[in-house]
Each structure stands twice: as structure tokens, then as C-alpha cells.
Batch of 2 targets.
Target 1
Amino acid sequence: MKKILMIGTGGTIASTPTEYGLAPGLTPADILSYIPAVRRVCEVDSIQVCNLDSTNVTPKHWKLLAGTVEEHYEEYDGFVICHGTDTLAYTAAALSYMIRNSSKPIVITGAQKPIQMDVTDARTNLLDSFIYAADDESQNVNIVFDGKVIAGTRAKKERAKSYDAFSSINFPYLAVIQEGMIVRYIKEPPCGVPVSFSYDMKDSVYVLKLIPGMHASILPYLFEHYDCLVIESFGVGGIPNTLVQEFYTEMKKWEGKGKYVVMTTQVANEGSNMTVYEVGKRVKQDFKLFEAYDMTLEAVITKMMWLMGRGTSEYEEMKQEFYTEVNHDILFTKRLESEG
């Protein structure tokens, strides 16, 4: 039988009632006691690295998780991380960049209701995660939730209470798990290079969500205090006229000084295309910036943290790395190659 290490971090799946509401309180051993059927799937050891509501997860916790996987990588055939749902998609994306080309599966899961409740999704999600982690064809960082397998860079939490909380954005589900059986939609080629780990994540990233009538006075502060500004624009992407003058001023002021702008969209599905309208095309032609295209916001943020943490400073080098696919995070470059 495969040996799987379960890594506990807290989250709803491990929560118990308190005076002020649910809070993580169960240990990994407590959680495993609710799924005795796992003994027929694999051998399981467990470890707890933190005990947090995932609202409190930061890049230092991503480093802790990546380090735990690396420390035990040779001992186990796969890993299951129990995590709160609120920032689960961020953690999955971050670990996709921090742990690359893993021939062993790193599965992240959680629940919308605590595992000790009579009616809960936790037991199914957790058992499905072990089934997936113990399968010979599983690899890399993925989310298992509500019977669906989602690439670590493609998940977004779209429902606050329902069991089908996560969707795969602009990319198919890798597989589904039904009655203990894995039905794979995408057969992934084996990792052809050894696994690599990296830990330096530069968190100097700010997300600016555009709203109608936004004051341009916010831009100088953001450009001064952050090294990467991710702009969530409307529709397929662009800068409204009320912000254009100040945006141009700041872009020219900070050009060549290690500042980066990534344009993305507030629309969850189908991605950006700044060349469609004048408000986007003009800005893209005039300045060196990145466009997120079909990437999720979670992937954009964590990929930029990872790239800046690697010390990449030259714009062209950063651009090439940003558009290099990691764990299915961007399809746009493939489309360009096919059209070219």
C-alpha cells in the first residue's frame, strides 16, 4: 500500500464550537478517526504544522508547508494537506510554484462543515483526497473537493456555503472521483525532471480592483509602496479615462526601477484581451506590463511573489518566466504557438 503523509493546518475541517464561533481544535489524528475506511486505501501518518483559520494564512505558512513536504518527500508516496477553504486556492497556487515537477501527488483539501458534524462534506473530501493521492497516475499539486480534481493553479472559491465551493477556472477538471473510483479527463505526461523546491516569496504585491469613479490619487501611493501592482480591470481589460493621466505619470516615473504591473479582469471566466478596446490596447502598446489572459487572480498573485522572490529583475526575463506554463496556469502561450 502507498504511504501518504497527512499535513494538518487547521481550517473548518478541524474546527469545533467555541464561545465566539467555530475555530480549529481537532488534531490530524482526531480528523483521521472519522474516516476509518482510509485503512483500505493507504497507510497514513500525520503531522500538524499549524492550527489556523485559513483567513490567517500568509506566505510564511506556504514556506512551512513546502518545507514539510521537502523534509518528508523521500519517505512518502504522496501528501494530503488539510486546509481552510477561504485561502485554499491561494495556497494551492503558491505551492504549485514552490514545488514544481513533483512526480508524487500533493493534494489539498478541506470542507465547508467540520468533520465532527453529523452532516458534513469533510469525510467525503478527505477520503477522496487519499484515494487520489494513492493512485499511481497522480502527481503535482492539485485540489480535491466535492468529487472534483482541480489543478492547483486553476481553482477559485465561488460559493461561501455550498459543498461545491470550488470551480476550475478556464481549464477542465483533471478528474472526478465517484464512489471511490477516479475518472480522469486529462492524462498528464510523467514529470520528466526531478522535483524542485523554492521558498523565497516576495509579498510586495497589491491588488487594485477598479470601480467606476475611482480616484486616481491612490496610484502614486501604490506604485511607491509595492513592487507589483495587479489591476483587476473591467471586462477584457483597460484603464478608464479618469485614471489614465496619473497611470501614465507613474508608469514613466518608475520605469526600469523594478516595478511591475499585471493587468487582469474582474470577470472570473474567459480571461482578458486588452487589444479589443482602445482603453486597453493603447495602454498595452505604450508600456511594459503583463497581461494575465486566462490565469486566475490567485495564480497571478502567487506567481509574481515567486518570480520576484527568485530575484528576477530584468523585464524581458520576468516576462518570459511569467508566460512560461507551470502546472497548467496559463494556456495563452500555447494558443500563440498554435497560431504562429
Note: The mean pLDDT is 95.
Target 2
Amino acid sequence: MIVVCPRCNTRYQVDPRALGADGRMVRCAQCSHTWHQSPPPGTFPLPAEPEAPPPSVLPPHPAPEHVAAEAPAAEGERGEERIQLPAVPRRRRGSSWVTIGWIVLLLLVAGGAAAGVWWRDDIVRRWPAANLIYGKVGLGVPQVHDVLQLVANPRFDEAADRLIIEGTVTNISTSAQRVPRIKVELTDDRQQLVETWTFSVSAERLLPGATVSFTTTKPRNPAAKNMAVDFAGPND
């Protein structure tokens, strides 16, 4: 049976047989309140009324005098009869909302992690420093020079007075790769930038082992003394 403390409403699981036929004093383990607890009706069935003996065997002496019922002991005198049983754990209010909150948080974290993996190429392209974070968990994005090989051959066309840059891009990886734009920088003898431009090589992904050629030309700049040709960055 369930017993509820009348003061703090703490619930207890109690075996009715522990209360006895007349009930007994119990004490709340939560607030120490004591009260008399009776068992539920029908817990202890009344004994059957004994049959009267035959007249021949009735005792010859008169019936004993009436004995007064013993007065119930005061609450303080029956302290040794108090019982204290483990309380039934009450469900905390709001615990279901806390659980739902944790589930939602885990789903958001998992979704963010999945999105970070799915779009990691674009993330690293726009924020190269993010590749260090991906590398720590084994998801680093290969850098362009790890998958593509660039070879450039510049020359001057004296007749046209133009700079001509020819070259090739080869996919040295085992998967198809996007070919980024190529950037050309011209500097003077003091390494000061005098001219720069970028151009596209191919709009299609380059298959493993495949090579694509490119050519770019510019009018000759007399101030240019040095040249650098490389893949363009995300901000170029």
C-alpha cells in the first residue's frame, strides 16, 4: 500500500502486514512527522466465531468478570513501535523537459558536425586556417599543391611585344579535382608588385592522372623583372 505523509506529502511503499490489525505509529523519513497509520480495510479478516460447546461440557464456575480494555498508549509511549520504511521516489517536475533539452542539444551538435564535414571543402577554401582544426581529427582537406601539379613556361614574343605564359595542370591525386584559377604576379627589381592578373584553366573537374593545358598573354611591361605563377587563393 502507499502511505502519504500528511505534512510533507512524501509517499511510502508499506507492506500492510507491517502495520498490524490495529495499525501503528509511523514516522516520515523526510520531515520526521509521526502519525497513527491504519491498514486498509480487509487486510486482516476477522476470525470465525467459535461454536458454543455442548451444555454437558460447560464449565461449572461462572464466567469471568469483565476486564477493562487497556487504554492505548500515548504517542510518546509507543515510540518503539514506529516504523520507517524507504520512501517511494517522486518524479522530479520538469525532468522530462530537461531530457528533451539535452536531446535537442545533441541533435544540434550532431547536425553542426555533419554540416562541417559535408561542406569542409568550401569552409577551408574560404577560411584556410580551419584546415588545421580538421587535420587534428583526421579530416584535413588536402592542399591544392598536394593534388595538382602546376608547370608554367613564360616567354616573350618580340614581334608582338607581349609576354606569353604557357603551361599545364596535372591531377596527381586519386580523385577528381576542381582546378582553381591561376594567378600571375610581375615584380620589379626591388620586388615591388607592378602587375597581377588571374585566369581560369578549366570549368570541369580534372580526372586522376589527367592534364590540362593553359595559355595567357599580356603586353610586355618594361618595369617587370620577375614573375611568379601559382594557383590563386580564395580571395584572389
Note: The CA atoms of residues 188 and 223 lie 6 Å apart.
